[in-house]
Amino acid sequence: MRMIKWQNGTVITPDQTKLPLQEATLEIKTVEQMAEAIKTLRVRGAPLLGAAAGFGVAIAAYRSKAKTTKQLLAELETAGALIKAQRPTAVNLFWGVDRVLGKAKTFSGGVEELKAAVIEEAQKIADEDAAQNRAIGKNGSVLIEDGDTILTHCNAGELATVEYGTALGVIRAAWEGGKKIKVIADETRPLLQGARLTAYELKRDGIPVTLITDNMAAHVMSKGLVDKVIVGADRIVQDAVFNKIGTYGVAVLAHEHKIPFYVAAPKSTFDLSCKAADVTIEERKPEEVTHVGCQQTAPDGVAVYNPAFDATPLKYVTAIICETKVYYSKDFPAFKKGKL
Amino acid sequence: MRMIKWQNGTVITPDQTKLPLQEATLEIKTVEQMAEAIKTLRVRGAPLLGAAAGFGVAIAAYRSKAKTTKQLLAELETAGALIKAQRPTAVNLFWGVDRVLGKAKTFSGGVEELKAAVIEEAQKIADEDAAQNRAIGKNGSVLIEDGDTILTHCNAGELATVEYGTALGVIRAAWEGGKKIKVIADETRPLLQGARLTAYELKRDGIPVTLITDNMAAHVMSKGLVDKVIVGADRIVQDAVFNKIGTYGVAVLAHEHKIPFYVAAPKSTFDLSCKAADVTIEERKPEEVTHVGCQQTAPDGVAVYNPAFDATPLKYVTAIICETKVYYSKDFPAFKKGKL
To answer: Which of A127, A137, A170, A328 is deepest in the core (most CB within 10 A)?
Structure first.
């Protein structure tokens, strides 16, 4: 199911802030509306943001009344700057805007042709992401056996991408291939992407899913209830996988219980220029920990530590599933030399 | 600070359902009020429930207009039955009621003397629990070094006991002994006893505390931010420690990071008649996982697994701190023979 669609100048995408309680659809018709949707996390998930950014510039092209390509390009630059400003640390936003703007800048032709080229490039970003995820799913599904129960953390699902998902893409491909699998979803505090999004999209698609709190993962593993773990990744460096906070703990527990731990991510996630020690982990506001939604759960003014990501050393990773191939532990030493 | 006090026929205790946002005090004057406070978790925590149960029977004695000891005993039996019925699986409730009733039944004397004996026995339960926890604190504090950062899970604190706490008793004793320690508190989903109670009572007492979500424990350990782990226990069997869900995961993570993992609990927690495999773990209602307070966080009707406790095999436990001594791994094999 496409999470983001271009329909005659309107971008159609689910309002993720309303999930799982309400399935509302956004109809984004202006750059300002796209900027607001990104800012307020109505649209979220790294690959989906890349596509949303491209479509944001495409909307500016579609609505433009520019008479010259110079004027049109200036308008696209303004639209791109507005989109980038919404979440200054989201690299995919920058990547999506720059890819479409880059195409526009090198294009030669009239105003209408330029508009069409910009819209086409945005559409291409979306199509490529969808194809990539299906390839990841296909490559990963061979690792899944009929009857497996798979634990996942956070949401590396369709809702974070244009279509199909990465970790959940592997699960989806195995399910579509007729394997009777079950999923255990960690709720993933503090922002509960597992409870809100992973549980929602698997339930919607009829894939059996059981929700647990993060601290139940060890217990379900010790009871023999988990055959495999699959998670996504935000950044893969020479010696570690960065992903949503809590991933590292799950990896250590999987290792202790001799359960394979798989990472599913596109090759664009690799950043082999650095090591885990070089990466600064984003710390987010205390309210995410002291509150759930508007409900306060901790005393006023208590000190909080709220890292958004953690690093899982590669020794805990069984394999990394990409769109072109699966990397096993024998392939990991090459990462230190910057090689894939 | 006494969590439960007898004051001229009135039992004074904090309303724990209001914490940490409000510090409200209950003044319990009737058995019915005590029953309601237990039922609604205004009073909770195994050792505290034992004392509350005893005081519940003491209130019945204090308020009684019985003319004969036979009539008084009948009234105490009725009061005890009402208290036990509030939480049928809380063993401390049964233990507290039965201890006071047992005293009453074997007492010889008049009505007023019997009333006094019942009140005295209830008071004794409370005093003994307080003394026991101070002894645990003293025994455990020698294991804590100046400057240590200690991670704890759930609330094995003053709020769960009559005074001082068990795991937090050790922390309190080290702090009172002048050791400059810091605490990291897991929030402890689903019921958030770490966020609501541990963070509250340590902050109130001026002991530095930082709150994290449960899935951040692995990350803080990997960053070298944790020197020791201390938790409480609900039941210690021949080969494992049963405690709040999530404890086992913390123990595995501590083991992997070579961090000592201590359990603090009174000797009454030991049940060496059985092994971990013999124990059925209570599963609680799905709403605890799909909701935080009144806020729904997961899709309607999603499947949930919600075990209340987990089992930590003794191989992950560095030592068990009791009121009489500290048991180290060399002492654990004797547990299999039922010996302490």
So the answer is: A170
Place of tokens 């460096």: A237
pLDDT digits over B140-180, tens only? 999 999 999 999 999 999 999 999 999 999 999 999 999 99
What confidence tier does A293 reach under pLDDT thresholds 50, 70, 90?
Answer: confident
Q: Is B62 on the interface with A (CB under 8 A)?
A: no
- Please give, rounded to a whole number of angstroms, the shortest distance from the CA of B93 to a CA of chain A: 27
How many C-beta atoms lie closer than 10 Å to residue B293's C-beta?
A: 12
A321 within 8 A of A139, measured Cβ to Cβ: yes
* Residue-by-residue DSSP string for B130-162: HHHHHHHHHHHHTTPPTT-EEEE-S--SGGGSS
Neighbouring C-beta atoms of residue B103, cutoff 10 Å: 18
Q: Model pTM greater than 0.90?
A: yes
> Which of A182, A188, A203, A213 would best serve as a mutation to test chain B binding (most B beta carbons within 10 A)?
A213
Note the pLDDT of residue A57. Answer: 98
Does position A320 have pLDDT exceeding 90, yes or no? yes
Q: Residue A234 catalytic?
A: yes
Strands (E), chain A: 5-7, 10-14, 25-28, 149-152, 182-186, 209-212, 228-231, 235-236, 240-244, 261-264, 291-292, 295-296, 303-304, 309-313, 319-321, 326-328
Beta bridge partners of B292: B295
Alpha carbon of A60 to those of A64, A74, A228, B111: distances in Å?
A: 6, 11, 45, 89
Residue whose tokens read 């984003």: A282
Q: pLDDT band at A128, cuts 50/70/90? A: very high
d(CA B329, CA B155): 25
Structural domains for chain A: 5-134 (1.20.120.420), 143-337 (3.40.50.10470)
Partner B contacted by A210 (CB < 8 A): yes
Kindly list the distances between the CA atom of residue A179 and the CA atoms of A148, A170, A182, A259, in Å, as whole numbers in the listed order.
8, 12, 9, 19
